[in-house]
Design brief:
By secondary structure, the protein is α/β, with parallel strands linked by helices. It has helices at about 1-10, 80-90, 110-120, 125-130, 140, and strands spanning about 20-30, 35, 45, 50-60, 65-75, 100-105, 130-135. It has a 5-stranded mixed sheet, with helices on both faces. A two-stranded antiparallel sheet has the order 2-3. A hairpin with a 4-residue loop joins strand 4 (about 50-60) and strand 5 (about 65-75). The relative contact order is 0.20.
């Protein structure tokens, strides 16, 4: 936790940007019955729905650089996370020396996914240009600040 607070206290430096990465799963549903309005203008909706799958909303924000990117993906697997990290390092900040990424600790956010995706197949320096900092938001760490 102190490590993340130290990262947030840094001054802005374009060569060493600080990026926040977060994702949120969303269930996709459709209504089975159409809603309708009565004569008094009251809208009636049925709570029955049909599941249409799921989507993953990913937000990448550089607060001090005033930059934001949003992606919609089908999953949150390790290779998807690695592609997002590659996008940050290669597309968003190609001239940065080191990019600090602050993120939560999900099972797919593992450094071996970066090495599997970029070192073996594409031989890129993506894993070396990223500095991952975990934002541990457990009940124990919330009260430390």
């Amino acid at each position: 936790m102190e490590d993340v607070l130290e990262v947030y206290a840094r001054e802005y430096n374009a060569e060493y940007p600080v990026v926040c990465y977060d994702e949120s799963p969303k269930q996709l549903v459709s209504e089975l019955r159409k809603s309708y309005m009565d004569d008094k203008g009251i809208k009636y909706e049925d709570c029955e729905y049909q599941r249409e799958g799921a989507a993953e909303i990913v937000m990448i924000v550089e607060p001090l650089g005033q930059h934001r990117e949003i992606f919609i993906d089908d999953d949150h697997k390790g290779d998807t996370w690695a592609r997002h990290m590659g996008y940050i390092a290669e597309q968003m900040y190609p001239n940065a020396k080191k990019v600090t990424v602050v993120e939560d600790n999900l099972s797919s956010h593992k450094k071996h996914n970066l090495y599997n995706t970029y070192t073996m197949f594409l031989n890129h320096s993506v894993p070396e240009r990223l500095l991952i900092r975990l934002n541990l938001s457990t009940p124990q760490t919330r009260f430390m600040a």
